[in-house]
Amino acid sequence: xxSAIYLAMSYELQKIPMMCAFLEKKGIxxxxxxxxxxxxxxxxxxxxxxxxxxxxVRSVDKAVVLIIPSRNxxxxxxxxxxxxxxxxxxxxxxxxGVSVVDMRPALEATGSPTEYxxxxxxxxxEDGHALAARLLADHLKR
Length: 142
Prior knowledge:
The chain has seven helices and two strands, in the order H-H-H-H-E-H-E-H-H. It has 142 residues and is mainly α.
């Protein structure tokens, strides 16, 4: 399931829409929508997450927090809730004086934010990592 051959074959098969539909119908594969949980706005979770992060930040001399936006910010049916959660969390950190680099504005400025994520995976691809590195370097230079 986690072998390089499996992952390579899975990636190639997902490029073929008819094959994807067939594999999903047979229960062999799932659409990425089925792999992602839909978030709900929960102030207790946000506050708890902020408090844990603040403890980490305050335990070192200097810290910069890189905010990695959920790919769901740009998915139909998820965007409104994800945007509210994202914005609220960033505001909470800034209010506490945390040095934050929020990737969302930079990703959205490109016009194609999901191009920085793997097509079949919610993680960043090489371009996403390169953009984050540039933004962090710019932030640290300032």
